[in-house]
Each structure stands twice: as structure tokens, then as C-alpha cells.
């Protein structure tokens, strides 16, 4: 199915790797980006915006590597209106089978006056020049009018018409600051469809931010008004309050096909897997009451609801858990479970591991099974997630021994490897966690400040694994790290080390001026 020939087909443009990564703390390394990109392509995402190539060498490399590996998805790279940005994006996208250059400039009076310090005629000329220049490298060019929802209509129509005339095949109208409301945004889309004479030569796209909690509602209103591409992220990840959530857009279109008779190419049974992967990699936990992918999304506690569910699930469920990849397990795991059963369980949970990763996970599973009588699916997910994207880490955990209690002193004896070299230190602190973090500081000196330390149990019971989230800040850059272990202090150290490794990746990143959209 093609959006150009099927007017009911909605193009799903995922920007988790670009706009999602702009969320404070959500830095991803190359291996993590490649894992997410592979899963996005497998689940049927049409366009993957892999990064902003001129932002850093790391972003360039990520776009380039995703472009090399993608087989079916369009791979997009973001660029401002200048030739240097477009050159860098084009170079990064060279290996792509289906490259797209996504170029943008601000068009609202506020942004033109105070951010760009340019007159409307200068901005209009930049639109024409940037799109025409990008067309030298690919025939798939997308143009975005940053702060489009607050742009004067006459000027917006003029810019859109000129961008299409210069060769843009997709026109994106972002609600950059999350200011608009559904009826207003729908009217904006209808206005463009009615007033721009060559609008039929491009696909209209929307990109909504969630500052007022309306990103999904605005996106769906725009689709009903005639937009045919939606830009979104897994779990609604993104700067400030985030972006429109891919899973909510897709499941709303599927569940309410009577009201919105449109289709996407997304395999919805992979949604839960994608959500968990992005949550694990970024360290952004999904709130329990989050639509579609929250832990409580299909939980029913009210007696009236439970009674109705037992009689007919449709009384209180508008979609099935299985439709988003939440399948009830038939395999109970324990200390006597073998490697084949473990492999089957992982496949059931949506994990496909290579032999080395499987052997490592199986060893850790056996260790955990010796400590816990009952292993839940969540235990195995946490166990595997704890190793996701960490095999290229500079700093690695080896062992920890702590002495704690009310009498003190609380001490932590920690062993790490840093770039393969073994290091050890013993430190005291105000409690075992503080002592352990002081030991990390002694072995890996840094200036990062601890902004968040959060612990929650993966399952019920006193023998539950702990999952810890740590947020570090250094010179305005924030990163999240996660760690899981049956020992809370070990999980805390793993989370802190995970965050430090991410900080090493993020240090080289420098967001260019006027990066938004």
C-alpha cells in the first residue's frame, strides 16, 4: 500500500531516534539506536528519522549506520535550511536504499523575528533554496515549517506552495510548542488543502508536541481533515512534555476505524516489545496508567469491571491485550528449566538473542533462579533488558560487597573494569547506596550531579528484583541509566554505571542553533 495511491493509507513517521532523543536524559549510543531502528522497521514503520547528522559525529554515524542496514523503511536525516546541514545529511544518507532529507525553517512571526532575525521574504527564499538544494541529492525531500501552527495563514500558504514547486514531496506542519487544539489544527490542514494550488503534489504531514496533553488528539483531528503522514515517537518520548505517541495513534486508528477509516502498515502485536525496548534504553519508565502500553492498561480492579470482564471481555476492553503484543505465557520457568525452554520463553516475550547473548542471559537466569523460587515473565524481561545495548560500555560492573546497618560505618568495596582494565576501591558513605556511589566516583572521577534516584520492584514479594533508575547531569546535559538485580544496591550501581556510560556518549553532542521542529 502506498500513500500516494491510497488516500486511506496513513504514513507513520517515527522520530524516536531524533526528536525522542532530545528528551532530557534520553541519550542513546549507536548500538542502542540500531536496535530500535531494526525493531521499528520490523514492525512496519514507513519512515525512520534516524537523527540530525550535523549535530555531532555520533548523530552522523547513527544515521549512516541505520541507512546501511535498512531494507524497506525510508530513512530520514534532519537538516536546517543551510547548505552545510543538507550536505551533511546527504552524506550520512548515502547508503540508504530509500533516503529522505528533512529540512526545516521557522515561519511564525515570533520565531522569524526573535530566533532567526530574518524578514519573511528572506525566510521564503530560504525555503525555496533549501528544498531545491536538497533535491540535488534525493527526490524524497520533506519540508517543515517550524512553529507552523502559529504561522500567519497567507505566509504559510506561500511557503508551502513554493516548497512543493521547488520539489518537496512531503509538507510537514508542526505544532512545535504544543499550543494548538484539535478543531483549530484540523481547520489549518483544511485551509492548506483548499488554498494551496499544488497541494495535491505532496503528502501533508503533522508533528504534534504534547505540552497541553493534546498531541494525539491534534494528530488524529489533522488526519480526519486530510493529513496523510503522522510524525510520532514510541511511548510519546520527546523534549518537554513529549510527542504524539505512536502506539496511541496506531491503536486509535485501528480501534475506531468506524470513525477514522484509515490504515497503517504497523504490526500492532510488536507495540509492547517496542515500548519496553525504548523504555529500557532511554531509562524513561512508562507510567502505569499510560494508554496502550502502561502496566495497568489492561488491569481491572473494580469489582463491577471484573464481573463484566468475566462475562464478556468487551464490556470493559475496547482492544485485546494480544493485539498490542501482550500474550499470556504458557511456559512456567524455574531453576530446572533448560536452555531450549529459556530460548522459547524469550521468543514468546519478543526477544531474539544471538548465541553469545543467549548464553550470557541463560547463565544470569540460572543465577536468579537459585535466588528466587518463582520467576515471572517480568523477571526475565528485566534480566534481558539489563544487558541491552551495554556490551560496548567503557565502564563495566564486576562485583560489589557492602557493610551496612544502624551501627555503621557503611562501606562499599567495588570492582569495575574501565576500558578492560580492572579497578577496585573501598569507600564509606551515608548508607550503602551513598558508599557505593562514592566508590564509583573514586574509580571514575567525574563532575556529574545525581538528579534522580528511583527504585521499584519488578514483581511482588520480598525476593523481587529491584529496577533502579538514575539520572545524572553534567554541564547542562542529562542522561538516564537503569539497572536490575535481586540486590537493590547492585542494581543501583549498575544503573549509575549505565548512566555514566551514556554520559561519555553524550559529551560530544552539541545541539546546533535553532534545533527544533
TrEMBL record:
GO terms for cellular component: cytosol. It comes from the Bacteria. Pathway: Amino-acid biosynthesis; L-leucine biosynthesis; L-leucine from 3-methyl-2-oxobutanoate: step 1/4. GO terms for molecular function: 2-isopropylmalate synthase activity; acetyl-CoA C-acetyltransferase activity; manganese ion binding. Its cofactor is Mn(2+). One of its GO terms (biological process) is L-leucine biosynthetic process. Residues 10-272 form the Pyruvate carboxyltransferase domain. It catalyses: 3-methyl-2-oxobutanoate + acetyl-CoA + H2O = (2S)-2-isopropylmalate + CoA + H(+). Its EC number is 2.3.3.13. Residues 396-517 are annotated as: Regulatory domain. InterPro entries: 2-IPM_HCS-like (IPR050073), 2-isopropylmalate_synth_dimer (IPR013709), AIPM/Hcit_synth_CS (IPR002034), Aldolase_TIM (IPR013785), LeuA/HCS_post-cat (IPR054691), LeuA_allosteric_dom_sf (IPR036230), LeuA_bact_synth (IPR005671), PYR_CT (IPR000891). Mn(2+) binds at residues 19, 207, 209, 243. Keywords: Amino-acid biosynthesis, Branched-chain amino acid biosynthesis, Cytoplasm, Leucine biosynthesis, Manganese, Metal-binding, Transferase. PANTHER family: 2-ISOPROPYLMALATE SYNTHASE 1, CHLOROPLASTIC-RELATED, HOMOCITRATE SYNTHASE-RELATED. Catalyzes the condensation of the acetyl group of acetyl-CoA with 3-methyl-2-oxobutanoate (2-ketoisovalerate) to form 3-carboxy-3-hydroxy-4-methylpentanoate (2-isopropylmalate). Belongs to the alpha-IPM synthase/homocitrate synthase family. LeuA type 1 subfamily. Homodimer. This is 2-isopropylmalate synthase. It comes from Oceanibaculum pacificum. The lineage of its organism: Bacteria, Pseudomonadati, Pseudomonadota, Alphaproteobacteria, Rhodospirillales. The gene is leuA.
